[in-house]
Amino acid sequence: TLRQATANSINTVFAQLALDVGAEDFTEMAKKMGVTSPLEPYPAYALGGTAECCTVLEMSNAFATIASGGVHHEPTAISRVEFPNGEVDELEDSDGNRVISDGVAYEVADVMKGTLEYGTASGHGIACPAAGKTGTTEEQADAWFVGFTPQISTAVWTGNPDARVPLPGYGADLSAPIWNDFMSVAAAEPCEDFPEPEDPAELSPHYSDHATTGTEGDGYYDDGTATAPAPAPAPAP
């Protein structure tokens, strides 16, 4: 299922799903969520893109769209201004732009909780409800962990900024522990779960046309309640 594939970084499942959804559709959604780097409609982007995409700010901003219930906000470097006389000027929060329903965002966040609870980043969760995803590029040159709570989204990248040098580990080994150290403090208050959506998502089974093994129906994607065949060995998380 997609729930299992997300938690355990089973890339083959997402490769199949990418072909079902269509590369143009999911790259367009990535842009709506906050990715500003150039994206070509290639199926490979469903597995995290290429070395050219994306910046740490883009990744944290895109995941923040999920954290905020499907509303995208442009990132800003200033939250308030404190003057010498003690006065404080708080910047008004923008209304943002809804790009997915709160029901879909809630389901995605719930699925991504599995990464920290029992998946590739298990053991690096924090005391508060959180969700996230590990990622490692070709030749282990980039190690990622991006995770979020309802209040804060944080992306951690480990790598060499000047050259593609293989790393001694994956996103789960190198970046998730850094994320844990930071978020254990930054996300400690308030410690709240993701709010129930006002517009719950209506889920339905989906059978992939691109599943290549087993019998008809093996490419079953859903919210995690269906029985699925054992996945093929996965690439590195």
How much strand content do the residues show? 5-15%
Please tally the helical runs, counting DSSP H or I stretches of 4 or more residues: 7
Can you give the helix content as a percent range? Answer: 25-40%
Average per-residue pLDDT, rounded, comes to 86
| Total beta-strand segments | 9
In spatial order, strands of the major sheet run 5-6-7
Distance between the termini: 17 Å
Question: How can the largest sheet be summarized?
Answer: 3 strands, antiparallel
Classification by helices and strands:
alpha+beta
Shape: globular
* H-E string: HHHHEEEEHEEEHHEE
- As residue ranges, the low-confidence spans are 213-237
Rg over CA atoms, rounded to whole Å, is: 18 Å
Please describe what this structure looks like.
With 237 residues, the chain is of the alpha+beta class. Helices cover 30% and strands 14% of the residues. The chain contains seven helices and nine strands; from the N terminus they run ααααββββαβββααββ. The protein has helices at 2-7, 11-21, 23-33, 56-67, 102-117, 171-174, 176-186, and strands at residues 71-72, 80-82, 88-90, 97-98, 131-136, 142-148, 153-159, 206-207, 220-221. The strands form four sheets. It has a three-stranded antiparallel beta sheet with strand order 5-6-7, with helices on both faces. β2 and β3 (88-90) form a beta hairpin. α3 packs across α4 (56-67). The longest helix has 16 residues, at 102-117. The protein is globular and about 65 Å long. The two termini are 17 Å apart.
